[in-house]
Design a protein that fits this description.
The protein is built from three helices and 15 strands. It folds into two domains: 49 residues; 193 residues, Exo-inulinase, domain 1 (Jelly Rolls, Sandwich), CATH 2.60.120.560. It is α+β, with helices and mostly antiparallel strands. It starts with 33 loop residues before the first helix and ends in an 11-residue tail after the last strand. Strands 1, 2, 3, 4, 6, 11, 12, 13 and 15 form a nine-stranded antiparallel sheet that branches. A six-stranded antiparallel sheet has the order 5-14-7-8-9-10. Helix content is 19%, strand content 36%.
Length: 288
């Protein structure tokens, strides 16, 4: 069907010229209805509002754990990027650790099969071998540890055995912190501060728990590290972060670091001991 000619030109054909000599053109397309555009924008806004909470939940569920894992790995990287203050593979007697038998306590300190060993006889006594070096500043201490055997008296000492690290031993040996692990996957961080010789008064538990990052079994090795920053202790086992725990007791800084058994009737086996300066725990440490 042809369109009617413009006024005054009854025989004009389409497309036609309004004025002779000007180009021919088609009429413009009709404008989009405003109601259609408004509906589209409204639907888009509703979809965004509905989906936004799911996006936040997804980000929290996956983003936060990923950031935490990065941060914990970054702390370990910062520790090992530094030159050790003290390092000993503990494969032979180099004169830096106690060696021999103590007739008074029944404790034995010796090197065997490329490792340093602690072995005692009593279920009611702990045993330790602090290193000779003194440290004034915050440090990070690591070692590979293993426990061989179980307590002699399973009824009275069940669950109290374990091997690990002794930290910040005061000059009078009456104040220190221990971080040790049990061969079944349990761990403990505790403070000893002599009061009256009673365990309930002298010992303060700072933190404890269970971790699947342990390699369980008799004589099986586990790597552990604790980083001390003021009164806060950052604990790791087999490169897995256990947590940061604060000691609210009297201030304890510096001192001697070393190796520890919570019950002396088991045998502790230790290698790869090292002490590093404690790095900054800031996400973006200041330069200079």
């Amino acid at each position: 069907m042809s369109l009617p000619p413009p006024p005054g030109q009854p025989e004009a054909s389409f497309p036609y010229q309004i004025y002779p000599g000007y180009p021919s053109y088609l009429p413009p397309a009709p404008p989009t209805s405003p109601s259609v555009l408004r509906t589209f924008l409204l639907v888009t806004l509703i979809v965004l509002v509905v989906l936004a909470p799911f996006g936040l939940i997804f980000g929290a569920a996956y983003g936060i754990p990923a950031y935490q894992e990065w941060y914990h790995n970054e702390l370990l990287r910062r520790v090992h990027a530094q030159q050790p203050l003290f390092e000993d593979q503990l494969t032979y007697d180099d004169g830096k650790w106690s060696v021999g038998d103590d007739s008074k306590t029944g404790n034995s300190y010796f090197f065997s099969n490329g490792a340093y060993h602690l072995k005692g006889q009593r279920d009611d006594r702990s045993m330790s071998a602090p290193g000779a070096a003194l440290f004034d500043d915050d440090v990070a201490v690591e070692a590979t540890v293993a426990q061989k055997g179980r307590p002699a008296s399973s009824s009275s000492s069940a669950g109290y055995d374990g091997v690990g690290l002794i930290l910040r031993v005061a000059a009078n040996k009456g104040d220190f912190v221990v971080f040790f692990i049990h061969e079944e996957g349990y761990w403990s961080l505790a403070r000893y501060h002599y009061v009256n010789g009673d365990a309930d008064s002298d010992w303060t538990g700072l933190a404890s728990g269970f971790s699947k990052s342990f390699t369980e079994g008799d004589g099986v090795e586990n790597w552990m590290l604790v980083m001390m920053c003021g009164a806060t202790y950052y604990c790791f086992v087999n490169e897995r972060y256990l947590g940061a725990y604060r000691d609210t007791g009297p201030e304890l800084r510096g001192g001697r670091m070393g190796l520890y058994m919570n019950i002396s009737s088991v045998e502790g086996i230790f290698t790869n001991y090292a002490v590093y300066p404690a790095p900054s725990t800031d996400v973006f440490p200041r330069s200079g």
